[in-house]
Amino acid sequence: MRSAELSTFFEQLESELSSIPNELRRLFHGRGRCWEGLEQITADWLQGQLVVQVFKQPEAQFIDALRQGLIDFSQSAVWEKQQGKTIVLQHRYQEGAPAEVVIGDLNSSPVVVENGIRYQLDVGRNQNFGLFLDMRYGRDWVKERSKDKKVLNLFSYTCGFSLAAIAGGAKQVVNLDMAKASLNKGRQNHRLNEHDTSKVSFLAHDLFKSWGKLKKFGPYDLIIIDPPSFQKGSFALTKDYQKILRRLPDMLTEKGLVLACVNSPSVSEQFLIDSMKEQAPQIEYQYRLDNPPEFKDINSQASLKAMVFALNK
Fold first, then answer.
1. Angle between the 269-279 and 237-245 helix axes, to the nearest 10 degrees?
2. Which of 35, 102, 132, 289 could bond to 87 as cystine, CB 3.0-4.6 Å?
3. Architecture, CATH, for domain 3-120
4. Superfamily designation of domain 133-311
């Protein structure tokens, strides 16, 4: 991380903030390694709040220059035009990922919009604020294909895919995640969008002990698998993903679709293609979804891989 490159960071912030729609967006993605000297910094616009995250401890000089640059940025014309209110600097390299409010007053539970869907976030208390912005096209894809469909959302977190599916006209969505608090946030977000929650199930279960229960809700027209790379005691991507894939043929309707995702930089798209071919050969690879342009990565295999498969019975 180099202080001399911060001028580039602020130039990109100004350019992106002046051109985005009235939605939340990532404005700067240094972790894609396309900006030399800025590889460990990101910036997200939460419709009035700017959240800047630093992932690796830099020299004190860098943090001081970044902090002063953010203060100066709050005086810019684009900040005023976009009605900016708060700037938060989150130190992800420190234990607990503490959030420092640089400008304004933190709104820790803002309501934001993406593609017509409202989400209430949780800012400043956790490493993540409740919605992974690189999955924007994935949520759009689900919304466009959910009309009158039955959807299974595995590792659902705060149920972003579920919100997209119901907004797209799904007749039923089943969300499964071990974290009850995340599912509760998903339920709140469905209510925030005035969705019919009688169409949505929230199962706080261990996936690998729940296949019988999930099968009773099925079969499904669309299954979404978006697991963490590693979850202590419950999931290791390269070891456990195959256990899920081999169950899919019995869970899908004829011509059912699977959106299988991996967001580990050390695992390529070929892992999913080969694993599906080995575990469920009747489910065939179709294509990989593009990532949003703001998440450009110097190595496409290191970024989010959202892969579409279809059952061919």
1. 40
2. 102
3. 2-Layer Sandwich (3.30)
4. Vaccinia Virus protein VP39 (3.40.50.150)
